[in-house]
Amino acid sequence: MPLITIGSADDPRLADYVRLRDVSLRRHLETEQGLFIAEGEKVIRRAVEAGFRPRSFLLAERWLDSLADLLAGTPDVPVFVVTEALAEEVTGFHVHRGALASLHRESRHSVDDLLGLRRLVVLEDIVDHTNVGAILRCAAGLGWDGVLLAPRAADPLYRRSIKVAMGAVFSLPWARLTDWAGAVPMMREAGYRTVALALADGARDIGEVAAELGPDEKVAILLGTEGDGLSQRWISDADDVAIIPMQAGIDSLNVAAAAAVACYVLR
Amino acid sequence: MPLITIGSADDPRLADYVRLRDVSLRRHLETEQGLFIAEGEKVIRRAVEAGFRPRSFLLAERWLDSLADLLAGTPDVPVFVVTEALAEEVTGFHVHRGALASLHRESRHSVDDLLGLRRLVVLEDIVDHTNVGAILRCAAGLGWDGVLLAPRAADPLYRRSIKVAMGAVFSLPWARLTDWAGAVPMMREAGYRTVALALADGARDIGEVAAELGPDEKVAILLGTEGDGLSQRWISDADDVAIIPMQAGIDSLNVAAAAAVACYVLR
Protein backbone atom coordinates (compact mmCIF):
# COMPACT_ATOMS: atom_id res chain seq x y z
CA MET A 1 0.00 0.00 0.00
CA PRO A 2 2.32 2.70 -1.20
CA LEU A 3 1.19 5.95 0.41
CA ILE A 4 1.45 8.78 -2.07
CA THR A 5 0.71 12.28 -0.91
CA ILE A 6 -0.81 14.29 -3.72
CA GLY A 7 -0.52 18.07 -3.76
CA SER A 8 -2.30 19.09 -6.94
CA ALA A 9 -5.74 18.45 -8.34
CA ASP A 10 -4.18 18.17 -11.79
CA ASP A 11 -2.04 15.20 -10.84
CA PRO A 12 -2.73 12.62 -13.57
CA ARG A 13 -2.70 9.81 -11.04
CA LEU A 14 -6.07 11.09 -9.84
CA ALA A 15 -7.64 10.65 -13.28
CA ASP A 16 -10.02 7.94 -12.03
CA TYR A 17 -11.62 10.40 -9.61
CA VAL A 18 -12.27 13.50 -11.65
CA ARG A 19 -15.66 15.24 -11.69
CA LEU A 20 -17.67 12.51 -10.04
CA ARG A 21 -20.87 14.48 -10.42
CA ASP A 22 -20.60 14.79 -14.17
CA VAL A 23 -22.73 11.79 -15.11
CA SER A 24 -22.06 11.77 -18.83
CA LEU A 25 -18.31 12.23 -18.41
CA ARG A 26 -18.22 9.49 -15.79
CA ARG A 27 -20.25 7.09 -17.89
CA HIS A 28 -17.70 7.24 -20.67
CA LEU A 29 -14.67 7.32 -18.46
CA GLU A 30 -15.73 4.42 -16.26
CA THR A 31 -16.79 2.05 -19.00
CA GLU A 32 -13.85 2.91 -21.26
CA GLN A 33 -11.34 2.57 -18.48
CA GLY A 34 -13.11 -0.42 -16.94
CA LEU A 35 -13.45 1.01 -13.47
CA PHE A 36 -16.03 1.99 -10.92
CA ILE A 37 -15.92 4.17 -7.83
CA ALA A 38 -16.89 3.12 -4.30
CA GLU A 39 -17.53 5.84 -1.73
CA GLY A 40 -17.30 5.57 2.04
CA GLU A 41 -15.53 3.05 4.25
CA LYS A 42 -18.43 0.59 4.45
CA VAL A 43 -19.04 0.40 0.71
CA ILE A 44 -15.31 0.16 -0.05
CA ARG A 45 -15.00 -2.75 2.37
CA ARG A 46 -17.92 -4.55 0.83
CA ALA A 47 -16.55 -4.16 -2.67
CA VAL A 48 -13.15 -5.52 -1.68
CA GLU A 49 -14.67 -8.33 0.39
CA ALA A 50 -16.81 -9.26 -2.61
CA GLY A 51 -13.59 -9.75 -4.53
CA PHE A 52 -13.49 -6.63 -6.66
CA ARG A 53 -9.87 -5.56 -7.22
CA PRO A 54 -8.99 -1.99 -6.28
CA ARG A 55 -6.98 0.14 -8.70
CA SER A 56 -6.29 2.83 -6.12
CA PHE A 57 -7.64 4.54 -3.02
CA LEU A 58 -8.16 8.27 -2.50
CA LEU A 59 -8.22 9.05 1.19
CA ALA A 60 -8.09 11.97 3.53
CA GLU A 61 -5.36 11.29 6.07
CA ARG A 62 -7.74 10.56 8.93
CA TRP A 63 -9.04 7.48 7.08
CA LEU A 64 -5.69 5.73 6.96
CA ASP A 65 -6.13 4.20 10.39
CA SER A 66 -9.64 2.87 10.07
CA LEU A 67 -8.88 1.30 6.69
CA ALA A 68 -5.40 0.08 7.71
CA ASP A 69 -6.34 -3.62 7.69
CA LEU A 70 -7.89 -3.40 4.26
CA LEU A 71 -4.97 -1.43 2.81
CA ALA A 72 -2.53 -3.95 4.26
CA GLY A 73 -4.40 -6.64 2.36
CA THR A 74 -3.88 -4.91 -0.98
CA PRO A 75 -0.15 -4.19 -0.79
CA ASP A 76 0.35 -3.24 -4.44
CA VAL A 77 -2.50 -0.76 -4.69
CA PRO A 78 -1.52 2.90 -4.47
CA VAL A 79 -3.13 4.98 -1.74
CA PHE A 80 -3.42 8.64 -2.70
CA VAL A 81 -3.51 10.79 0.40
CA VAL A 82 -5.14 14.16 -0.07
CA THR A 83 -6.63 16.98 1.95
CA GLU A 84 -10.40 17.20 1.94
CA ALA A 85 -10.14 20.44 0.00
CA LEU A 86 -8.12 18.73 -2.71
CA ALA A 87 -10.54 15.81 -2.80
CA GLU A 88 -13.35 18.28 -3.34
CA GLU A 89 -11.41 20.08 -6.06
CA VAL A 90 -10.83 16.84 -7.95
CA THR A 91 -14.19 15.19 -7.53
CA GLY A 92 -16.33 18.32 -7.69
CA PHE A 93 -18.13 17.79 -4.42
CA HIS A 94 -17.57 17.45 -0.73
CA VAL A 95 -16.77 13.80 -0.10
CA HIS A 96 -18.76 13.39 3.08
CA ARG A 97 -17.28 10.12 4.06
CA GLY A 98 -13.71 11.10 3.17
CA ALA A 99 -12.81 7.86 1.42
CA LEU A 100 -13.01 6.78 -2.20
CA ALA A 101 -11.71 3.77 -4.07
CA SER A 102 -11.44 3.04 -7.77
CA LEU A 103 -11.96 -0.64 -8.57
CA HIS A 104 -11.79 -2.79 -11.67
CA ARG A 105 -15.17 -3.23 -13.28
CA GLU A 106 -16.21 -6.83 -13.94
CA SER A 107 -19.15 -8.49 -15.61
CA ARG A 108 -19.60 -11.30 -13.15
CA HIS A 109 -22.73 -12.88 -14.55
CA SER A 110 -24.08 -13.50 -18.00
CA VAL A 111 -27.71 -13.26 -19.02
CA ASP A 112 -27.65 -17.05 -19.35
CA ASP A 113 -26.54 -17.39 -15.72
CA LEU A 114 -29.42 -15.21 -14.65
CA LEU A 115 -31.94 -17.23 -16.64
CA GLY A 116 -31.12 -20.20 -14.42
CA LEU A 117 -32.44 -18.39 -11.35
CA ARG A 118 -36.01 -18.66 -10.17
CA ARG A 119 -37.03 -15.10 -9.39
CA LEU A 120 -35.84 -12.13 -11.42
CA VAL A 121 -36.51 -8.42 -11.41
CA VAL A 122 -36.12 -6.96 -14.88
CA LEU A 123 -35.55 -3.24 -15.38
CA GLU A 124 -36.47 -1.73 -18.68
CA ASP A 125 -35.30 1.89 -19.12
CA ILE A 126 -34.86 2.99 -15.53
CA VAL A 127 -32.32 5.75 -16.00
CA ASP A 128 -32.00 7.09 -12.47
CA HIS A 129 -29.11 5.62 -10.51
CA THR A 130 -30.86 6.07 -7.20
CA ASN A 131 -33.79 4.02 -8.43
CA VAL A 132 -31.58 1.27 -9.81
CA GLY A 133 -29.70 1.09 -6.51
CA ALA A 134 -32.88 1.09 -4.45
CA ILE A 135 -34.43 -1.66 -6.54
CA LEU A 136 -31.32 -3.84 -6.27
CA ARG A 137 -31.36 -3.43 -2.51
CA CYS A 138 -35.04 -4.29 -2.38
CA ALA A 139 -34.74 -7.28 -4.64
CA ALA A 140 -31.88 -8.67 -2.56
CA GLY A 141 -33.60 -7.96 0.75
CA LEU A 142 -36.90 -9.47 -0.27
CA GLY A 143 -35.34 -12.68 -1.54
CA TRP A 144 -35.26 -12.21 -5.29
CA ASP A 145 -32.42 -14.03 -7.03
CA GLY A 146 -31.16 -11.59 -9.60
CA VAL A 147 -31.73 -8.50 -11.74
CA LEU A 148 -31.64 -8.13 -15.51
CA LEU A 149 -31.17 -4.67 -16.99
CA ALA A 150 -32.31 -3.54 -20.42
CA PRO A 151 -29.66 -1.92 -22.63
CA ARG A 152 -30.64 1.62 -21.61
CA ALA A 153 -31.14 1.11 -17.86
CA ALA A 154 -28.74 2.95 -15.57
CA ASP A 155 -25.45 1.42 -14.48
CA PRO A 156 -25.59 -0.54 -11.18
CA LEU A 157 -21.88 0.14 -10.67
CA TYR A 158 -22.25 3.90 -10.87
CA ARG A 159 -21.20 5.47 -7.56
CA ARG A 160 -24.68 6.59 -6.65
CA SER A 161 -26.32 3.24 -7.46
CA ILE A 162 -23.78 1.46 -5.28
CA LYS A 163 -24.31 3.84 -2.40
CA VAL A 164 -28.08 3.46 -2.45
CA ALA A 165 -27.90 -0.31 -2.94
CA MET A 166 -25.78 -0.55 0.23
CA GLY A 167 -23.59 -3.21 -1.31
CA ALA A 168 -26.40 -5.37 -2.73
CA VAL A 169 -24.93 -4.60 -6.14
CA PHE A 170 -21.89 -6.68 -5.13
CA SER A 171 -23.82 -9.67 -3.80
CA LEU A 172 -26.92 -9.95 -5.95
CA PRO A 173 -26.32 -11.40 -9.43
CA TRP A 174 -27.20 -9.02 -12.24
CA ALA A 175 -26.54 -8.82 -15.96
CA ARG A 176 -27.18 -6.52 -18.89
CA LEU A 177 -29.51 -7.58 -21.70
CA THR A 178 -28.27 -6.77 -25.18
CA ASP A 179 -31.55 -7.33 -27.02
CA TRP A 180 -34.36 -5.12 -25.83
CA ALA A 181 -36.97 -6.33 -28.33
CA GLY A 182 -36.37 -10.02 -27.75
CA ALA A 183 -36.07 -9.84 -23.97
CA VAL A 184 -39.54 -10.85 -22.86
CA PRO A 185 -39.94 -13.69 -25.38
CA MET A 186 -36.51 -14.96 -24.24
CA MET A 187 -37.64 -14.98 -20.63
CA ARG A 188 -40.84 -16.79 -21.48
CA GLU A 189 -38.84 -19.34 -23.39
CA ALA A 190 -36.62 -19.79 -20.35
CA GLY A 191 -39.74 -20.73 -18.39
CA TYR A 192 -40.60 -17.49 -16.60
CA ARG A 193 -44.02 -16.18 -15.96
CA THR A 194 -43.43 -12.54 -16.88
CA VAL A 195 -45.42 -10.02 -14.88
CA ALA A 196 -45.40 -6.45 -16.22
CA LEU A 197 -46.10 -3.77 -13.64
CA ALA A 198 -48.00 -1.11 -15.57
CA LEU A 199 -50.96 1.25 -15.47
CA ALA A 200 -52.40 -0.32 -18.60
CA ASP A 201 -55.90 -1.20 -19.73
CA GLY A 202 -56.82 -4.63 -18.53
CA ALA A 203 -54.17 -4.72 -15.82
CA ARG A 204 -55.17 -6.82 -12.83
CA ASP A 205 -54.61 -6.26 -9.12
CA ILE A 206 -51.12 -7.51 -8.29
CA GLY A 207 -52.51 -9.45 -5.33
CA GLU A 208 -54.70 -11.45 -7.70
CA VAL A 209 -51.72 -12.27 -9.91
CA ALA A 210 -49.69 -13.28 -6.84
CA ALA A 211 -52.40 -15.70 -5.75
CA GLU A 212 -52.09 -17.59 -9.03
CA LEU A 213 -48.34 -18.21 -8.82
CA GLY A 214 -47.23 -21.76 -8.19
CA PRO A 215 -44.79 -22.33 -5.32
CA ASP A 216 -41.88 -23.16 -7.63
CA GLU A 217 -42.90 -21.14 -10.64
CA LYS A 218 -40.18 -19.04 -12.25
CA VAL A 219 -41.27 -15.41 -12.05
CA ALA A 220 -39.90 -12.25 -13.65
CA ILE A 221 -41.24 -8.83 -12.65
CA LEU A 222 -40.88 -6.25 -15.42
CA LEU A 223 -40.45 -2.63 -14.31
CA GLY A 224 -40.44 0.37 -16.62
CA THR A 225 -38.98 3.82 -16.76
CA GLU A 226 -39.76 6.54 -14.22
CA GLY A 227 -41.75 8.74 -16.57
CA ASP A 228 -43.66 6.64 -19.05
CA GLY A 229 -43.51 3.19 -17.50
CA LEU A 230 -42.96 0.02 -19.51
CA SER A 231 -42.93 0.09 -23.28
CA GLN A 232 -45.97 -1.18 -25.13
CA ARG A 233 -43.78 -3.92 -26.53
CA TRP A 234 -42.86 -5.36 -23.16
CA ILE A 235 -46.40 -4.98 -21.86
CA SER A 236 -47.90 -6.89 -24.75
CA ASP A 237 -45.20 -9.56 -24.60
CA ALA A 238 -45.76 -10.20 -20.89
CA ASP A 239 -47.89 -13.03 -19.50
CA ASP A 240 -49.60 -10.78 -16.97
CA VAL A 241 -50.08 -7.07 -16.52
CA ALA A 242 -50.44 -6.10 -12.87
CA ILE A 243 -51.16 -2.87 -11.06
CA ILE A 244 -50.83 -1.81 -7.47
CA PRO A 245 -54.26 -0.39 -6.66
CA MET A 246 -53.94 3.36 -6.06
CA GLN A 247 -56.04 6.16 -4.69
CA ALA A 248 -57.83 8.27 -7.24
CA GLY A 249 -56.00 11.45 -8.17
CA ILE A 250 -52.58 10.29 -7.09
CA ASP A 251 -49.78 9.69 -9.52
CA SER A 252 -48.32 6.26 -9.52
CA LEU A 253 -45.83 5.36 -6.83
CA ASN A 254 -42.27 6.05 -7.78
CA VAL A 255 -40.67 3.05 -9.40
CA ALA A 256 -38.55 2.10 -6.36
CA ALA A 257 -41.63 2.07 -4.09
CA ALA A 258 -43.60 0.11 -6.68
CA ALA A 259 -40.71 -2.34 -6.97
CA ALA A 260 -40.70 -2.82 -3.19
CA VAL A 261 -44.40 -3.62 -3.14
CA ALA A 262 -44.15 -5.91 -6.16
CA CYS A 263 -41.14 -7.78 -4.77
CA TYR A 264 -43.01 -8.27 -1.51
CA VAL A 265 -46.34 -9.33 -3.00
CA LEU A 266 -44.94 -11.66 -5.67
CA ARG A 267 -42.16 -13.18 -3.56
CA MET B 1 -47.87 39.76 -12.61
CA PRO B 2 -45.33 42.55 -12.76
CA LEU B 3 -42.41 41.30 -14.84
CA ILE B 4 -39.14 42.40 -13.33
CA THR B 5 -35.93 41.64 -15.15
CA ILE B 6 -33.12 41.08 -12.68
CA GLY B 7 -29.51 41.63 -13.69
CA SER B 8 -27.54 40.85 -10.57
CA ALA B 9 -27.37 37.85 -8.28
CA ASP B 10 -27.05 40.24 -5.33
CA ASP B 11 -30.42 41.83 -5.95
CA PRO B 12 -32.16 41.72 -2.57
CA ARG B 13 -35.47 40.86 -4.22
CA LEU B 14 -34.04 37.39 -4.87
CA ALA B 15 -33.45 36.74 -1.17
CA ASP B 16 -36.02 33.93 -1.07
CA TYR B 17 -34.01 31.93 -3.60
CA VAL B 18 -30.44 32.06 -2.35
CA ARG B 19 -28.29 28.97 -1.99
CA LEU B 20 -31.03 26.38 -2.34
CA ARG B 21 -28.59 23.56 -1.74
CA ASP B 22 -27.48 24.82 1.64
CA VAL B 23 -29.84 22.79 3.81
CA SER B 24 -29.11 24.42 7.14
CA LEU B 25 -29.29 27.96 5.74
CA ARG B 26 -32.53 27.13 3.98
CA ARG B 27 -34.06 25.55 7.03
CA HIS B 28 -33.62 28.75 9.02
CA LEU B 29 -34.48 31.08 6.20
CA GLU B 30 -37.64 29.27 5.14
CA THR B 31 -39.12 28.79 8.57
CA GLU B 32 -38.19 32.28 9.78
CA GLN B 33 -39.52 33.94 6.66
CA GLY B 34 -42.50 31.61 6.42
CA LEU B 35 -41.88 30.46 2.88
CA PHE B 36 -41.17 27.40 0.84
CA ILE B 37 -39.81 26.85 -2.66
CA ALA B 38 -41.50 24.93 -5.44
CA GLU B 39 -39.40 23.82 -8.42
CA GLY B 40 -40.59 23.04 -11.91
CA GLU B 41 -43.77 23.94 -13.74
CA LYS B 42 -45.78 20.93 -12.61
CA VAL B 43 -45.01 21.32 -8.93
CA ILE B 44 -45.58 25.09 -9.02
CA ARG B 45 -48.99 24.53 -10.60
CA ARG B 46 -49.95 21.98 -8.00
CA ALA B 47 -48.95 24.24 -5.15
CA VAL B 48 -50.96 27.16 -6.52
CA GLU B 49 -53.93 24.94 -7.36
CA ALA B 50 -53.84 23.60 -3.82
CA GLY B 51 -54.30 27.17 -2.64
CA PHE B 52 -50.81 28.07 -1.48
CA ARG B 53 -50.17 31.78 -2.09
CA PRO B 54 -47.08 32.64 -4.13
CA ARG B 55 -44.73 35.38 -2.90
CA SER B 56 -42.84 35.57 -6.18
CA PHE B 57 -41.73 33.59 -9.20
CA LEU B 58 -38.18 33.23 -10.53
CA LEU B 59 -38.28 32.26 -14.18
CA ALA B 60 -36.04 32.01 -17.17
CA GLU B 61 -37.68 33.89 -20.02
CA ARG B 62 -38.71 30.79 -21.94
CA TRP B 63 -41.05 29.79 -19.10
CA LEU B 64 -43.18 32.92 -19.32
CA ASP B 65 -45.40 31.47 -22.02
CA SER B 66 -46.10 28.08 -20.54
CA LEU B 67 -46.93 29.59 -17.15
CA ALA B 68 -48.83 32.57 -18.60
CA ASP B 69 -52.26 31.38 -17.40
CA LEU B 70 -51.03 30.81 -13.89
CA LEU B 71 -49.21 34.15 -13.74
CA ALA B 72 -52.30 35.93 -15.00
CA GLY B 73 -54.21 34.42 -12.08
CA THR B 74 -51.83 35.93 -9.53
CA PRO B 75 -51.68 39.53 -10.77
CA ASP B 76 -49.99 41.04 -7.70
CA VAL B 77 -47.16 38.56 -7.46
CA PRO B 78 -43.82 39.72 -8.85
CA VAL B 79 -42.23 37.61 -11.56
CA PHE B 80 -38.45 37.86 -11.56
CA VAL B 81 -37.09 37.14 -15.00
CA VAL B 82 -33.49 35.96 -15.05
CA THR B 83 -31.04 34.21 -17.32
CA GLU B 84 -30.32 30.58 -16.49
CA ALA B 85 -26.77 31.58 -15.58
CA LEU B 86 -28.06 34.12 -13.07
CA ALA B 87 -30.52 31.59 -11.65
CA GLU B 88 -27.63 29.23 -11.13
CA GLU B 89 -25.53 31.92 -9.50
CA VAL B 90 -28.29 32.75 -7.02
CA THR B 91 -29.51 29.26 -6.19
CA GLY B 92 -26.16 27.50 -6.35
CA PHE B 93 -27.19 24.86 -8.84
CA HIS B 94 -28.46 24.41 -12.34
CA VAL B 95 -32.23 24.74 -12.17
CA HIS B 96 -33.09 21.96 -14.58
CA ARG B 97 -36.67 22.85 -14.97
CA GLY B 98 -36.03 26.57 -15.27
CA ALA B 99 -38.85 27.69 -13.01
CA LEU B 100 -39.02 28.38 -9.29
CA ALA B 101 -41.66 29.88 -7.04
CA SER B 102 -41.53 31.06 -3.46
CA LEU B 103 -44.83 30.49 -1.62
CA HIS B 104 -46.21 31.32 1.78
CA ARG B 105 -45.76 28.45 4.21
CA GLU B 106 -48.92 27.36 6.02
CA SER B 107 -49.73 24.85 8.72
CA ARG B 108 -52.93 23.57 7.24
CA HIS B 109 -53.71 20.83 9.71
CA SER B 110 -53.30 20.39 13.43
CA VAL B 111 -52.32 17.20 15.19
CA ASP B 112 -55.90 17.05 16.48
CA ASP B 113 -57.23 17.12 12.91
CA LEU B 114 -54.98 14.25 12.03
CA LEU B 115 -56.10 12.18 15.02
CA GLY B 116 -59.61 12.17 13.53
CA LEU B 117 -58.38 10.20 10.50
CA ARG B 118 -58.42 6.44 10.33
CA ARG B 119 -55.05 5.51 8.91
CA LEU B 120 -51.89 7.42 9.72
CA VAL B 121 -48.23 7.07 8.90
CA VAL B 122 -46.06 8.46 11.67
CA LEU B 123 -42.44 9.43 11.01
CA GLU B 124 -40.07 9.54 13.93
CA ASP B 125 -36.67 11.03 13.10
CA ILE B 126 -36.52 10.60 9.36
CA VAL B 127 -34.11 13.37 8.45
CA ASP B 128 -33.68 12.83 4.74
CA HIS B 129 -35.96 14.99 2.60
CA THR B 130 -36.06 12.46 -0.21
CA ASN B 131 -37.34 9.82 2.17
CA VAL B 132 -39.98 12.10 3.67
CA GLY B 133 -41.17 13.02 0.19
CA ALA B 134 -41.22 9.42 -1.00
CA ILE B 135 -43.16 8.29 2.06
CA LEU B 136 -45.75 11.04 1.64
CA ARG B 137 -46.25 10.03 -1.97
CA CYS B 138 -46.58 6.38 -0.99
CA ALA B 139 -48.98 7.05 1.84
CA ALA B 140 -51.21 9.14 -0.41
CA GLY B 141 -51.04 6.67 -3.29
CA LEU B 142 -51.81 3.65 -1.16
CA GLY B 143 -54.80 5.24 0.50
CA TRP B 144 -53.49 6.36 3.88
CA ASP B 145 -55.22 9.40 5.29
CA GLY B 146 -52.43 11.49 6.76
CA VAL B 147 -48.89 11.74 8.08
CA LEU B 148 -47.66 12.86 11.48
CA LEU B 149 -44.04 13.96 11.86
CA ALA B 150 -42.00 13.86 15.04
CA PRO B 151 -40.29 17.11 16.04
CA ARG B 152 -37.00 16.16 14.38
CA ALA B 153 -38.30 14.65 11.15
CA ALA B 154 -37.41 16.48 7.94
CA ASP B 155 -39.59 19.25 6.54
CA PRO B 156 -42.22 18.10 4.01
CA LEU B 157 -42.20 21.59 2.48
CA TYR B 158 -38.50 21.54 1.75
CA ARG B 159 -37.90 21.80 -2.00
CA ARG B 160 -36.54 18.29 -2.32
CA SER B 161 -39.36 16.68 -0.30
CA ILE B 162 -41.93 18.42 -2.46
CA LYS B 163 -40.25 17.32 -5.66
CA VAL B 164 -40.07 13.69 -4.62
CA ALA B 165 -43.61 13.70 -3.21
CA MET B 166 -44.88 14.87 -6.61
CA GLY B 167 -47.38 17.18 -5.02
CA ALA B 168 -48.74 14.70 -2.44
CA VAL B 169 -47.39 17.09 0.19
CA PHE B 170 -50.06 19.58 -0.91
CA SER B 171 -52.98 17.15 -0.93
CA LEU B 172 -52.31 14.72 1.90
CA PRO B 173 -52.98 16.11 5.39
CA TRP B 174 -49.90 16.20 7.61
CA ALA B 175 -48.93 17.84 10.87
CA ARG B 176 -45.94 18.17 13.16
CA LEU B 177 -45.97 16.60 16.62
CA THR B 178 -44.54 18.76 19.37
CA ASP B 179 -44.19 16.05 22.01
CA TRP B 180 -41.95 13.19 21.00
CA ALA B 181 -42.16 11.25 24.26
CA GLY B 182 -45.93 11.41 24.55
CA ALA B 183 -46.69 10.74 20.90
CA VAL B 184 -47.44 7.01 20.95
CA PRO B 185 -49.53 7.08 24.16
CA MET B 186 -51.47 9.98 22.63
CA MET B 187 -52.19 7.94 19.51
CA ARG B 188 -53.30 4.95 21.54
CA GLU B 189 -55.58 7.19 23.52
CA ALA B 190 -57.04 8.46 20.27
CA GLY B 191 -57.95 4.88 19.43
CA TYR B 192 -55.15 3.83 17.10
CA ARG B 193 -53.57 0.47 16.99
CA THR B 194 -49.94 1.55 16.75
CA VAL B 195 -47.70 -0.71 14.67
CA ALA B 196 -43.96 -0.07 15.00
CA LEU B 197 -41.89 -1.21 12.03
CA ALA B 198 -38.61 -2.33 13.59
CA LEU B 199 -35.95 -5.02 13.55
CA ALA B 200 -36.54 -5.71 17.24
CA ASP B 201 -36.61 -8.84 19.36
CA GLY B 202 -40.07 -10.32 19.36
CA ALA B 203 -41.15 -8.48 16.22
CA ARG B 204 -43.74 -10.38 14.22
CA ASP B 205 -44.17 -10.78 10.47
CA ILE B 206 -46.05 -7.74 9.20
CA GLY B 207 -48.42 -10.01 7.28
CA GLU B 208 -49.47 -11.62 10.53
CA VAL B 209 -50.16 -8.24 12.12
CA ALA B 210 -52.13 -7.18 9.03
CA ALA B 211 -54.34 -10.27 9.28
CA GLU B 212 -55.42 -9.23 12.79
CA LEU B 213 -56.58 -5.73 11.86
CA GLY B 214 -60.30 -5.12 11.93
CA PRO B 215 -61.85 -3.53 8.82
CA ASP B 216 -62.55 -0.21 10.54
CA GLU B 217 -59.74 -0.25 13.05
CA LYS B 218 -57.71 2.95 13.35
CA VAL B 219 -54.12 2.13 12.46
CA ALA B 220 -50.90 4.11 12.81
CA ILE B 221 -47.66 2.82 11.26
CA LEU B 222 -44.58 4.08 13.11
CA LEU B 223 -41.42 4.47 11.02
CA GLY B 224 -37.99 5.31 12.41
CA THR B 225 -34.84 7.02 11.26
CA GLU B 226 -32.72 5.80 8.35
CA GLY B 227 -29.78 4.65 10.42
CA ASP B 228 -30.95 3.32 13.76
CA GLY B 229 -34.65 2.81 13.18
CA LEU B 230 -37.29 3.64 15.76
CA SER B 231 -36.35 4.68 19.27
CA GLN B 232 -36.70 2.15 22.06
CA ARG B 233 -39.32 4.43 23.55
CA TRP B 234 -41.64 4.31 20.56
CA ILE B 235 -41.07 0.58 20.08
CA SER B 236 -42.02 -0.24 23.66
CA ASP B 237 -44.99 2.12 23.57
CA ALA B 238 -46.40 0.54 20.40
CA ASP B 239 -49.15 -2.08 20.37
CA ASP B 240 -47.36 -4.24 17.83
CA VAL B 241 -43.84 -4.52 16.53
CA ALA B 242 -43.71 -5.76 12.96
CA ILE B 243 -40.92 -6.70 10.57
CA ILE B 244 -40.80 -7.26 6.86
CA PRO B 245 -39.14 -10.68 6.53
CA MET B 246 -35.73 -10.26 4.91
CA GLN B 247 -33.06 -12.40 3.35
CA ALA B 248 -30.16 -13.29 5.62
CA GLY B 249 -27.15 -11.05 5.21
CA ILE B 250 -28.99 -8.13 3.69
CA ASP B 251 -29.39 -4.85 5.46
CA SER B 252 -32.89 -3.72 6.03
CA LEU B 253 -34.75 -2.09 3.18
CA ASN B 254 -34.36 1.63 3.04
CA VAL B 255 -37.09 3.38 4.95
CA ALA B 256 -39.01 4.53 1.88
CA ALA B 257 -39.15 0.99 0.49
CA ALA B 258 -40.15 -0.37 3.89
CA ALA B 259 -42.85 2.30 4.12
CA ALA B 260 -44.19 1.28 0.72
CA VAL B 261 -44.45 -2.35 1.75
CA ALA B 262 -45.98 -1.47 5.13
CA CYS B 263 -48.54 0.91 3.61
CA TYR B 264 -49.51 -1.78 1.14
CA VAL B 265 -49.71 -4.66 3.60
CA LEU B 266 -51.53 -2.80 6.38
CA ARG B 267 -53.87 -0.80 4.14
Automatic annotation (TrEMBL), chains A, B:
InterPro entries, alphabetized: Alpha/beta_knot_MTases, MRM3-like_sub_bind, Ribosomal_eL30-like_sf, rRNA_Methyltransferase, SpoU_MeTrfase, tRNA_m1G_MTases_N
Chain ranges of the tRNA/rRNA methyltransferase SpoU type domain: 120-264
GO biological process: methylation
Domain MRM3-like substrate binding, first and last residues per copy: 31-91
Protein name: RNA methyltransferase
Pfam families given in the database record: MRM3-like_sub_bind, SpoU_methylase
Single GO MF descriptor: methyltransferase activity
